[in-house]
Protein backbone atom coordinates (compact mmCIF):
# COMPACT_ATOMS: atom_id res chain seq x y z
CA UNK A 1 0.00 0.00 0.00
CA UNK A 2 2.95 2.34 0.60
CA UNK A 3 3.94 1.97 -3.05
CA UNK A 4 0.44 2.78 -4.22
CA UNK A 5 0.46 5.89 -2.03
CA UNK A 6 3.91 7.01 -3.28
CA UNK A 7 5.75 6.12 -0.08
CA UNK A 8 8.42 3.92 -1.69
CA UNK A 9 11.15 5.42 0.50
CA UNK A 10 9.74 3.54 3.47
CA UNK A 11 9.93 0.12 1.81
CA UNK A 12 12.35 -2.50 3.19
CA UNK A 13 15.39 -3.53 1.17
CA UNK A 14 14.70 -7.24 1.68
CA UNK A 15 11.63 -9.34 2.43
CA UNK A 16 10.96 -13.03 2.96
CA UNK A 17 9.23 -15.38 0.55
CA UNK A 18 6.23 -15.44 2.89
CA UNK A 19 5.97 -11.66 2.66
CA UNK A 20 6.17 -11.77 -1.15
CA UNK A 21 3.37 -14.35 -1.15
CA UNK A 22 1.22 -12.02 0.95
CA UNK A 23 2.01 -9.13 -1.40
CA UNK A 24 1.10 -11.33 -4.38
CA UNK A 25 -2.30 -12.07 -2.83
CA UNK A 26 -3.02 -8.34 -2.50
CA UNK A 27 -1.73 -7.58 -6.00
CA UNK A 28 -3.81 -10.38 -7.48
CA UNK A 29 -6.90 -9.08 -5.68
CA UNK A 30 -6.41 -5.39 -6.56
CA UNK A 31 -4.87 -6.04 -9.99
CA UNK A 32 -2.04 -3.57 -9.33
CA UNK A 33 0.78 -5.57 -10.89
CA UNK A 34 2.48 -2.64 -12.62
CA UNK A 35 2.83 -0.65 -9.40
CA UNK A 36 4.67 -3.46 -7.59
CA UNK A 37 6.54 -5.38 -10.31
CA UNK A 38 9.75 -3.30 -10.06
CA UNK A 39 10.06 -3.73 -6.28
CA UNK A 40 9.05 -7.40 -6.35
CA UNK A 41 11.80 -8.17 -8.86
CA UNK A 42 14.33 -6.45 -6.60
CA UNK A 43 13.15 -8.41 -3.57
CA UNK A 44 13.13 -11.73 -5.38
CA UNK A 45 16.68 -11.20 -6.64
CA UNK A 46 17.76 -10.65 -3.03
CA UNK A 47 15.96 -13.68 -1.64
CA UNK A 48 18.17 -16.28 0.00
CA UNK A 49 15.64 -18.98 -0.88
CA UNK A 50 15.77 -20.52 -4.35
CA UNK A 51 13.11 -22.56 -6.10
CA UNK A 52 13.00 -25.94 -4.26
CA UNK A 53 13.87 -29.15 -6.08
CA UNK A 54 11.32 -31.15 -4.06
CA UNK A 55 7.54 -31.00 -3.70
CA UNK A 56 6.80 -28.73 -0.72
CA UNK A 57 4.77 -25.69 0.36
CA UNK A 58 7.53 -23.32 -0.74
CA UNK A 59 7.39 -24.73 -4.28
CA UNK A 60 3.66 -24.03 -4.49
CA UNK A 61 4.29 -20.51 -3.19
CA UNK A 62 6.90 -19.94 -5.90
CA UNK A 63 4.45 -21.08 -8.58
CA UNK A 64 1.87 -18.64 -7.23
CA UNK A 65 4.27 -15.69 -6.97
CA UNK A 66 5.72 -16.34 -10.43
CA UNK A 67 2.26 -16.58 -11.95
CA UNK A 68 1.10 -13.31 -10.38
CA UNK A 69 4.18 -11.26 -11.31
CA UNK A 70 4.88 -12.86 -14.68
CA UNK A 71 8.26 -14.33 -13.73
CA UNK A 72 8.64 -16.65 -16.72
CA UNK A 73 11.86 -18.48 -15.79
CA UNK A 74 10.86 -18.98 -12.16
CA UNK A 75 7.45 -20.20 -13.31
CA UNK A 76 8.95 -22.75 -15.72
CA UNK A 77 11.45 -23.94 -13.14
CA UNK A 78 8.86 -24.37 -10.39
CA UNK A 79 6.20 -26.02 -12.56
CA UNK A 80 8.71 -28.51 -13.97
CA UNK A 81 9.65 -29.56 -10.43
CA UNK A 82 5.94 -29.94 -9.61
CA UNK A 83 5.37 -32.08 -12.70
CA UNK A 84 8.32 -34.31 -11.77
CA UNK A 85 7.70 -34.58 -8.02
CA UNK A 86 3.94 -34.38 -7.47
CA UNK A 87 1.89 -37.54 -6.94
CA UNK A 88 -1.48 -36.00 -7.77
CA UNK A 89 -3.13 -32.58 -8.10
CA UNK A 90 -1.04 -30.10 -6.11
CA UNK A 91 -2.42 -28.52 -2.93
CA UNK A 92 -2.64 -24.75 -3.54
CA UNK A 93 -2.55 -24.02 0.22
CA UNK A 94 -5.59 -21.76 0.05
CA UNK A 95 -3.84 -19.36 -2.33
CA UNK A 96 -5.87 -17.75 -5.13
CA UNK A 97 -3.91 -19.65 -7.76
CA UNK A 98 -5.40 -20.05 -11.22
CA UNK A 99 -6.95 -23.50 -11.50
CA UNK A 100 -5.74 -23.92 -15.07
CA UNK A 101 -2.16 -23.96 -13.74
CA UNK A 102 -3.01 -26.80 -11.35
CA UNK A 103 -4.81 -28.70 -14.12
CA UNK A 104 -1.93 -28.32 -16.59
CA UNK A 105 0.66 -29.54 -14.06
CA UNK A 106 -1.44 -32.60 -13.27
CA UNK A 107 -2.18 -33.30 -16.93
CA UNK A 108 1.51 -33.19 -17.83
CA UNK A 109 2.39 -35.50 -14.92
CA UNK A 110 -0.14 -38.06 -16.12
CA UNK A 111 0.90 -37.70 -19.77
CA UNK A 112 4.56 -38.34 -19.00
CA UNK A 113 3.85 -41.31 -16.72
CA UNK A 114 1.63 -42.80 -19.41
CA UNK A 115 4.42 -42.25 -21.92
CA UNK A 116 6.93 -43.97 -19.63
CA UNK A 117 4.70 -47.04 -19.21
CA UNK A 118 4.17 -47.24 -22.97
CA UNK A 119 7.92 -46.97 -23.62
CA UNK A 120 8.72 -49.71 -21.09
CA UNK A 121 6.18 -52.03 -22.67
CA UNK A 122 7.67 -51.27 -26.08
CA UNK A 123 11.04 -52.41 -24.71
CA UNK A 124 9.40 -55.62 -23.46
CA UNK A 125 7.95 -56.25 -26.92
CA UNK A 126 11.32 -55.60 -28.53
CA UNK A 127 13.03 -58.08 -26.18
CA UNK A 128 10.56 -60.75 -27.29
CA UNK A 129 11.98 -60.55 -30.82
CA UNK A 130 15.43 -61.29 -32.17
CA UNK A 131 15.81 -57.62 -33.10
CA UNK A 132 17.31 -56.92 -29.68
CA UNK A 133 19.85 -59.76 -29.63
CA UNK A 134 20.45 -63.00 -31.51
CA UNK A 135 21.42 -64.86 -28.33
CA UNK A 136 18.28 -66.51 -26.99
CA UNK A 137 19.67 -66.87 -23.46
CA UNK A 138 20.36 -63.13 -23.41
CA UNK A 139 16.82 -62.26 -24.50
CA UNK A 140 15.32 -64.62 -21.91
CA UNK A 141 17.48 -63.18 -19.15
CA UNK A 142 16.95 -59.52 -20.09
CA UNK A 143 13.21 -59.95 -20.62
CA UNK A 144 12.85 -61.71 -17.26
CA UNK A 145 14.94 -59.10 -15.46
CA UNK A 146 12.90 -56.21 -16.86
CA UNK A 147 9.54 -57.91 -16.22
CA UNK A 148 10.43 -58.76 -12.61
CA UNK A 149 11.75 -55.30 -11.80
CA UNK A 150 8.77 -53.58 -13.42
CA UNK A 151 6.49 -55.76 -11.30
CA UNK A 152 8.48 -55.05 -8.14
CA UNK A 153 8.06 -51.30 -8.70
CA UNK A 154 4.36 -51.48 -9.68
CA UNK A 155 5.07 -50.58 -13.30
CA UNK A 156 3.97 -53.85 -14.90
CA UNK A 157 0.95 -55.89 -13.84
CA UNK A 158 -1.69 -54.68 -13.45
CA UNK A 159 -0.57 -52.09 -15.97
CA UNK A 160 -0.65 -48.64 -14.30
CA UNK A 161 -3.23 -46.26 -15.73
CA UNK A 162 -4.48 -42.73 -15.21
CA UNK A 163 -4.67 -40.95 -12.86
CA UNK A 164 -1.53 -42.67 -11.44
CA UNK A 165 -2.38 -41.82 -7.84
CA UNK A 166 0.56 -41.66 -5.42
CA UNK A 167 3.04 -42.07 -8.28
CA UNK A 168 5.52 -39.36 -9.19
CA UNK A 169 7.42 -39.21 -12.44
CA UNK A 170 10.72 -38.68 -10.61
CA UNK A 171 10.33 -41.83 -8.46
CA UNK A 172 9.34 -43.90 -11.51
CA UNK A 173 12.34 -42.69 -13.52
CA UNK A 174 14.66 -43.26 -10.57
CA UNK A 175 13.39 -46.85 -10.27
CA UNK A 176 13.91 -47.50 -13.99
CA UNK A 177 17.39 -45.97 -13.80
CA UNK A 178 18.35 -48.69 -11.30
CA UNK A 179 16.91 -51.60 -13.29
CA UNK A 180 19.71 -54.01 -14.12
CA UNK A 181 20.39 -57.46 -15.51
CA UNK A 182 23.06 -59.98 -14.50
CA UNK A 183 26.24 -60.31 -16.50
CA UNK A 184 25.98 -63.21 -18.91
CA UNK A 185 28.91 -65.53 -19.71
CA UNK A 186 28.73 -67.78 -22.75
CA UNK A 187 30.92 -70.68 -23.96
CA UNK A 188 33.63 -69.56 -26.32
CA UNK A 189 36.71 -70.92 -27.99
CA UNK A 190 37.84 -67.38 -28.65
CA UNK A 191 40.75 -66.34 -26.43
CA UNK A 192 40.25 -62.59 -26.30
CA UNK A 193 40.28 -59.71 -23.89
CA UNK A 194 36.79 -60.67 -22.72
CA UNK A 195 37.44 -64.41 -22.35
CA UNK A 196 37.96 -66.04 -18.98
CA UNK A 197 39.14 -69.43 -17.80
CA UNK A 198 36.39 -70.75 -15.55
CA UNK A 199 38.89 -72.97 -13.74
CA UNK A 200 41.18 -70.05 -12.94
CA UNK A 201 40.82 -69.30 -9.23
CA UNK A 202 41.72 -65.67 -9.87
CA UNK A 203 38.51 -65.17 -11.86
CA UNK A 204 35.40 -64.75 -9.73
CA UNK A 205 32.15 -63.55 -11.21
CA UNK A 206 29.46 -61.85 -9.19
CA UNK A 207 26.93 -64.08 -7.45
CA UNK A 208 24.27 -62.37 -9.56
CA UNK A 209 26.00 -63.34 -12.82
CA UNK A 210 24.53 -65.97 -15.13
CA UNK A 211 26.94 -68.53 -16.52
CA UNK A 212 25.61 -70.46 -19.51
CA UNK A 213 27.82 -73.54 -19.64
CA UNK A 214 26.18 -75.07 -22.68
CA UNK A 215 25.34 -73.62 -26.01
CA UNK A 216 21.72 -72.91 -26.79
CA UNK A 217 19.96 -76.27 -27.39
CA UNK A 218 17.14 -74.47 -29.23
CA UNK A 219 19.44 -72.83 -31.77
CA UNK A 220 18.82 -74.15 -35.25
CA UNK A 221 22.52 -73.86 -36.06
CA UNK A 222 23.28 -76.51 -33.41
CA UNK A 223 20.70 -79.05 -34.55
CA UNK A 224 22.13 -82.08 -36.26
CA UNK A 225 18.79 -83.33 -37.46
CA UNK A 226 16.13 -81.16 -39.00
CA UNK A 227 13.35 -83.43 -37.75
CA UNK A 228 14.48 -83.48 -34.11
CA UNK A 229 11.61 -82.78 -31.68
CA UNK A 230 11.64 -79.47 -29.84
CA UNK A 231 12.12 -81.10 -26.43
CA UNK A 232 14.33 -83.97 -27.57
CA UNK A 233 17.73 -83.80 -25.90
CA UNK A 234 20.99 -83.97 -27.76
CA UNK A 235 23.35 -86.84 -27.11
CA UNK A 236 24.79 -87.05 -23.59
CA UNK A 237 28.32 -86.38 -24.75
CA UNK A 238 27.38 -83.00 -26.24
CA UNK A 239 25.18 -81.93 -23.30
CA UNK A 240 27.72 -82.86 -20.67
CA UNK A 241 30.62 -81.18 -22.40
CA UNK A 242 31.89 -78.33 -20.24
CA UNK A 243 33.51 -75.46 -22.12
CA UNK A 244 36.99 -74.47 -21.04
CA UNK A 245 36.46 -70.79 -21.64
CA UNK A 246 33.62 -68.33 -21.06
CA UNK A 247 33.12 -65.01 -22.80
CA UNK A 248 31.22 -62.15 -21.20
CA UNK A 249 28.22 -61.19 -23.33
CA UNK A 250 28.08 -57.47 -24.05
CA UNK A 251 24.30 -56.88 -23.81
CA UNK A 252 22.84 -55.16 -20.75
CA UNK A 253 19.35 -54.09 -19.78
CA UNK A 254 20.23 -50.43 -19.19
CA UNK A 255 21.27 -50.08 -22.83
CA UNK A 256 17.58 -50.56 -23.71
CA UNK A 257 16.33 -48.26 -20.95
CA UNK A 258 18.71 -45.30 -21.15
CA UNK A 259 17.09 -43.93 -24.34
CA UNK A 260 13.69 -44.11 -22.61
CA UNK A 261 14.96 -42.20 -19.57
CA UNK A 262 16.77 -39.63 -21.71
CA UNK A 263 13.65 -39.04 -23.82
CA UNK A 264 11.39 -38.47 -20.81
CA UNK A 265 13.88 -36.18 -19.07
CA UNK A 266 14.30 -34.17 -22.27
CA UNK A 267 10.53 -33.75 -22.50
CA UNK A 268 10.40 -32.45 -18.92
CA UNK A 269 13.26 -30.03 -19.55
CA UNK A 270 11.49 -28.50 -22.55
CA UNK A 271 8.04 -28.41 -20.93
CA UNK A 272 6.15 -25.15 -21.06
CA UNK A 273 2.62 -25.20 -19.70
CA UNK A 274 2.05 -21.67 -20.88
CA UNK A 275 2.95 -18.25 -19.61
CA UNK A 276 2.23 -17.32 -16.00
UniProtKB/TrEMBL annotation:
It comes from the Eukaryota. This is Uncharacterized protein. It comes from Fusarium oxysporum.
Amino acid sequence: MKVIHAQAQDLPDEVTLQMIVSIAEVVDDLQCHDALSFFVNLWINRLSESVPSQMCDELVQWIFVASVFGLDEKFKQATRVAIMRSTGPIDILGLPMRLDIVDKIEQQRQNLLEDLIAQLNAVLDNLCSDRSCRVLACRFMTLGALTQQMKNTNLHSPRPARPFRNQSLSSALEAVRHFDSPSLYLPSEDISHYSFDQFDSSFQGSKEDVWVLQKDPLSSSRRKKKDRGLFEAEDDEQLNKTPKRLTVHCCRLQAHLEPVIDLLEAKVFTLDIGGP
